[in-house]
Amino acid sequence: MADLPNCPKCNSEYTYEDRDLFVCPECANEWTLGSETENSEEKKIIKDANGNVLNNGDSVTLIKDLKVKGSPTSLKKGTKVKNIRLVDGDHNIDCKIDGFGAMELKSEFVKKM
């Protein structure tokens, strides 16, 4: 059995290797050997349509109508979205919209409140 490093985030000893990543089952942290702790969260800066930096837990407003695939209704301009969560990928905001449900949005279509 290989000697695996402890999790840099929660110091758990129950880490395992998944291809080229180390994974912590307790806090779901993923890292590569030699990477700094929490590097993906701190280096990635996501900005809204006006250039304001977005953070987890912010409230935003839609700046244009957005059509949603598979839904007969669209999200209207001015819809308020509370408590956003930033994620990696093309749609970099994960949120719940009242009356609509869970959604992923692009930061270029929102402005910070």
Question: What attributes does this structure have?
Answer:
113 residues, mainly beta, N-terminal domain of TfIIb, SH3 type barrels, 3-stranded antiparallel β-sheet, 1 helix, 11 strands, 4% helix, YjdM_C, Alkylphosphonate utilization protein, YjdM
Indicate the CATH architecture of the largest domain. Roll
Order of helices and strands: EEEHEEEEEEEE
Assign a percent range to the helix content: under 10%
Instruction: Report the CATH C-level class of the largest domain.
Output: Mainly Beta
Largest sheet: 3 strands, antiparallel
Q: Can you count the beta strands?
A: 11
Alpha carbon gyration radius: 18 Å
Q: Which geometry do the CA atoms define?
A: elongated
Low confidence ranges: 36-41
State which percent range the strand residues make up: 25-35%
Strand pairing plus helix content: what structural class? mainly beta
According to CATH, the fold-level topology of the largest domain is SH3 type barrels
CATH superfamily of the largest domain: SH3 Domains
Number of domains: 2
Please state how the strands of the largest beta sheet are arranged side by side: 1-2-3
Count of helical regions: 1
Q: How much is the average pLDDT?
A: 87
Distance N to C terminus: 51 Å
Describe this structure in words.
- It contains 1 helix and 11 strands, in the order E-E-E-H-E-E-E-E-E-E-E-E.
- With 113 residues, the protein is mainly beta.
- It has 2 domains: 1-38, N-terminal domain of TfIIb; 59-112, SH3 Domains (SH3 type barrels), CATH 2.30.30.40.
- The strands form 4 sheets. Strands 1-2-3 form a 3-stranded antiparallel beta sheet, with no helix packed on it. It has a 3-stranded antiparallel beta sheet with strand order 7-4-11, with no helix packed on it. A 3-stranded antiparallel beta sheet has the order 8-9-10, with no helix packed on it.
- The longest helix has 5 residues, at 39-43.
- The chain is elongated, with a radius of gyration of 18 Å.
- Mean pLDDT is 87; it is low at 36-41.
- Residues 4-32 form the Protein YjdM N-terminal domain.
- This is Alkylphosphonate utilization protein.
- Pfam families: YjdM (PF03831), Zn_Ribbon_YjdM (PF08274).
- Residues 46-112 form the Protein YjdM C-terminal domain.
- InterPro entries: YjdM, YjdM_C, YjdM_N.
